[in-house]
Amino acid sequence: MTLTLPYPPTTNHAYTVARGRKVKTLKARQYANEVGWRVADELRVEGDAWAPTKADRLYVCLVAHAPDKRRRDLANIEKLALDAICTALGIDDSQIDQLTICRGSVDRAHPRLFVRLDLMPTEAAA
């Protein structure tokens, strides 16, 4: 499955404390909602045949196309995106066995996160 998602907010701006509890910020909740819609649209296109089960192991590749040339920590952009994708697919992010994050070109007009999810080969098939 491949997805093109909006560029995510950093993990640094994803959570706040309200009434003594750590909760997602409005920006993080809006991002998760948008990702959920995009995953649902992609599943409609690809059909349920691709949808991973709770037993499947996953490989994920992320390519981040930032909105500007500011220095960014790539590790701060993957958490919200992966949590939202996994929630939309009904799986747990602990199923990801391999994760690759790359910095793509700067795209001021259309900053985005390109995502490719694949099932890892099973031991029997490998």
Report on the structure:
α1 crosses α2. The chain has helices spanning about 25-45, 75-90, and strands at about 1-5, 15-20, 20-25, 60-65, 95-105, 110-120. The strands form two sheets. Strands 1-6-4-5 form a four-stranded mixed beta sheet, with helices on one face. A two-stranded antiparallel sheet has the order 2-3. It contains two helices and six strands, in the order βββαβαββ. The protein is α+β, with helices and mostly antiparallel strands. The chain has a single domain (about 1-120), classed as 60s Ribosomal Protein L30, Chain: A (2-Layer Sandwich), CATH 3.30.1330.70.
Entry keywords:
126 residues, alpha+beta, four-stranded mixed beta sheet, globular
Terminus-to-terminus distance: 21 Å
Overall 3D shape = globular
The helix/strand series, from N terminus to C terminus, equals EEEHEHEE
* Main sheet strand line-up: 1-6-4-5
Structural class: alpha+beta
Mean pLDDT: 90
Share in β-strands: 25-35%
CATH superfamily: Holliday junction resolvase RusA
Helical content band: 25-40%
Pick out the low-confidence regions: none
Number of domains: 1
- Using the 3D structure, state the CATH architecture: 2-Layer Sandwich
Fill in the CATH topology.
60s Ribosomal Protein L30, Chain: A
Number of strands: 6
What's the tally of helices?
Answer: 2
C-alpha Rg, in Å? Answer: 15 Å
What is the makeup of the main sheet?
Answer: 4 strands, mixed
Which class in CATH terms?
Alpha Beta
